[in-house]
Amino acid sequence: MPAEPSSIPATRRLRAFGALVGAAGLLASCASGVTSTSAPTSVAASPASQSSAATSTTTARGSGPVDVLYAGSLVDLMEKGLGPEFDAATGYSFQGRSGNAGALANEIKGKTVVGDVFIGAAPANDLALEGSANGNWASWYATFAQSPLVIGYNPASKFAQDFKTMPWYKVLALPGILVGRTDPATDPKGALTVTALKAGATAQNEPALSQLAANSGSIYPENTLVGRLQAGQLDAGFFYSVEAAAGNFPTVPLTGEPSPLAAKYTITVLAGAPHLAAADAFVKFLLGPTGSADLAKYGLSVASPVPVSGTVPPALSGVLSGS
Description:
By secondary structure, the chain is of the alpha/beta class.
């Protein structure tokens, strides 16, 4: 006959009870373990996580393009130096268009080109964009660097030795020499070239220089002049020193001129800039430590402090505090 429950030995009852307790404990432990591996959503972020979030916010990068219209003498600086470095540092995308600064200003006024930032080679380029008669495209500009006007020559030219031994105004008067320049009507460098030639003709009694100043056949687009010289299509040309440094060709200074002739590079943000945040970021980068180092590397004389004409917008007051 089966034993009554009360007849089961006490030790067996204790072992059964212990097994049940152990199984319950194991289940509780498993449940507890699952819960502990998931971070409670209601717990406040730790100081470390808050610090990380703050760092992420302060180092936030931009995105999208910035359209920069700039003087053609700065092609290498913009396309090989500042542009790529700006992209890497900020997350924005530099999109540049070069040309004769005066011609670019006319395109802006004629609404045939749209840009965020304009970099001219003379204050006159910016003045042509100021005021209601000019469309109010610019209300301020900063003159951030200079580059002297020089004569560059092809070292393989038959006139190369003459540039090493004779004054520049004598060499340019030699028969058969091919000299290139830019259009004085649209490019500040072209206007400075005419000034140099006319002054040299008077001071040195060289009528050939006046003839060269009047010869429209020697005029070429600014962004082709360096290439023509390097290809041997020209014996010499008028350039800024920044172009000669980038093109790695020899130069001679314009000695004997009554006053130094140089590009005065200016920058402004155009009214109605489609990408205003990117435009402000580009100006800050250009005038900051990396941009200034690039300008010096390419042979430009960097202004410090940067002189400003007009009222600078608050977003740029930090880098143009001298305004």
